[in-house]
Structure formats: structure tokens, C-alpha cells
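Example record for the data management plan.
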Amino acid sequence: MDKNSFRKVCLNQKIVNRYYYSKTISKSLLKIVKNYKNILLFMPLENEVNIKDLIHRLKFKGKNIFIPFMQDLSFKMVKYHLPLTKKKFNILEPKRANKTLQKIDLAIVPVVGVDSSFKRVGFGKGMYDRFFETLPYKPKIVFLQLKPCFSKQKLTDKYDIRADYYVSFNIRRKNNDDSLVFSSGDIIHSRGIYISKKDRFFKI
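Corresponding structural encoding:
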């Protein structure tokens, strides 16, 4: 299977309850983001984790929230503020688009799928890859997905970004954990079975 075929498989996954999945995943994200101040998030599409409530909660907690503003073949990072308007690819963006020079500590990035090298398979536009390539530093990166979609093969390219954590909904609910969180050191198996080096789900 190549990257394009894998992308189609992931996009065709049926999502039963986006609202519940999103609420559950957001709980796990709160544990991850608590030690970070400047955070890059995103405005979700219909097939992505709905983190809009999470963004408002983080702003209330005094976090500095940034989101992408599409620009040419990539995007620039702008401070999150209302109102938002629907722009390219039906993505919500602020009306004012002043690029920030502030350094981010953490980036939360939506994915279509993840391959065996813990790298991102996205929609194929390459915007996130180009953005991170321009950064003179490397923030912690968290991949976010409603329903797990892993490949046991290496499908990505050298320029594709790699995560430090991957968060999705735990369909198998091992040990009554609703959220599924992996670190970059975890082993990923096919057919919906996800096992870490210690033969358990990664705990945060």
C-alpha cells in the first residue's frame, strides 16, 4: 500500500459519535498541555476532533493560543481571536492575520493517519510540513485523530513531520481508558491492536 491508498482508507473510516470522541480526546489533551504556555492548535473540519471548546478552556486558563492562517502553499501562525470567517478549504480563520513571532512550546496537529515511523499522513497538501520546516526550533508535536488509523508499513517521506505523542479514541478501551495515547517510542501493530514497549497503553 502506498501513502495515497492508505489516506483513502483512513478517510473512509466511519465515525459513530464525533461529539463523544471529541470530548473524550480533549480530556487527554488537557493533561498534555498543562505544562505548556504557547500552543499551536487548529480549527477543525467535520472529520477532525472538535477542539473548539478546548481552545476556549485553554484561553480561560491563560494559555496563548495560535492557529494556522493559510498563505500560499503553507500557513503563517496567528493569534487566535474572534470573529472567525470561513476561508480556503472551508477552514475558519481570524479576519485579522498578523503573523506572530512568538515561539510555541507545543503544536497540536490533525492527521489523516500515521505510519510505522510515527510520521504524519495528512490531506496531501504539505502545509504542515512546509510550516515546520521554516521553524528554527522544534516544539513538541501531538498528532490528533478521531479514530485510530495506523499502517504497519513505512509510507511517509523524509519531509513528513513526526510526532512526540499521538492521541485518538480508544476503541478497544483497555483498562477502561477511553482515550488512546502513544508516545513516539511505542510499537504500532496492525488490525486495531496497539501495544507499547511495555505491552500496555502509554500513560500520561
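Summary line stored alongside the record: Residues 18-33 form the longest helix (16 residues).
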